[in-house]
Structure formats: C-alpha cells, structure tokens
Write a structure and sequence with these properties.
The structure is a single chain. By secondary structure, the chain is mainly alpha-helical. It is built from eight helices and no strands. It is elongated and about 45 Å long. It is 73% helix and 0% strand.
C-alpha cells in the first residue's frame, strides 16, 4: 500500500519540493478555491440534515449534478475538480515554466489527496458543525481557512 502511495504521489511531491513558498501558497489557494461550491453545498446540507459529513457531500456532488460536477453534466466530479484545480494553478502563475500536461497531472494527484476519506474526515472535524447565526459566507470562509491550514500541515 505504501509503495502505491509513493508511486501515486511521487510526481506531485517531486514538483512540490521544488517550489518556492510563494508558489506553494498559490497552489494551496487554487486547491482551496476549487472547494468553494462544495463548502456551500455542505453548509446547506448541514442546515437541513444536521449530521451530514463533508465526504458524503463530495461523493454526492458527482451523482446529483450539484457542487463540483455542475461545470457540466457529462463530466465526473473528479474531472470537474481537476479542471478547477488546474485552472486555478494556471491562473496563479505558480507553474509558469511547466507544460499544461504537467499541470493537469499535478492537479489530478492534488485531487486524489484532497478527496481521500481520511483527508475529508480530518477536515470535517476541523471545520466542525455550523455555528448558530453563522451565514453561508462566514461558514465558507471558515471552511477554507481550515482547509488551507490542513494542506499546509500535510504538505510541509
């Protein structure tokens, strides 16, 4: 299992380790921004159902046409999230010296990291439940802050 993870994320980490702190922050921001619609969906589901889990919202997003899959009804949630991440990375300029193929491959591996159940469970526990009188925008900002911090911790 460990060899599979090393092989799977080897390309990601080989690029990551060669980036400046400023480039890493731009990429983390792109990854976090790709989750905005998921955090909004999570907020609404939590308000309606109270005991919803983030990983369930991520899984459901691909099957219902909401959240990340709303880019187009014919692409998977994985492809939609990879597209959002790679677009964000491209726009940030973090990989100006890399080919589009490398950016997409890096984004695919980033998507796999942030959609693992273990990552989503840990993020879910850090976000915690919606707070009384918390607005959707406040919740999304708090969720993004927690995701940024978790990514920084996991990718140092």
């Amino acid at each position: 299992m460990l060899n599979l993870l090393i092989k799977l994320f080897g390309f990601f980490m080989s690029l990551w380790d060669g980036l400046s702190d400023q480039q890493k922050e731009k990429i983390i921001d792109a990854i976090v921004e790709s989750f905005t619609s998921l955090f909004r969906e999570y907020f609404h589901n939590a308000r309606m159902h109270n005991m919803v889990k983030l990983k369930d919202v991520v899984a459901k997003a691909g099957s219902t046409g909401t959240g990340i899959a709303s880019l187009t009804s014919t692409i998977s949630k994985s492809t939609a999230l990879v597209t959002k991440i790679s677009t964000g990375i491209t726009l940030s300029g973090a990989f100006n010296n890399r080919s589009n193929k490398d950016i997409v491959k890096f984004s695919e591996q980033a998507e796999k990291i942030v959609t693992q159940d273990s990552f989503l469970d840990e993020l879910d526990s850090k976000i915690g439940p919606t707070r009384q009188n918390e607005t959707e925008d406040e919740f999304v900002a708090r969720a993004k802050k927690e995701m940024r911090e978790l990514l920084r911790l996991k990718l140092k």
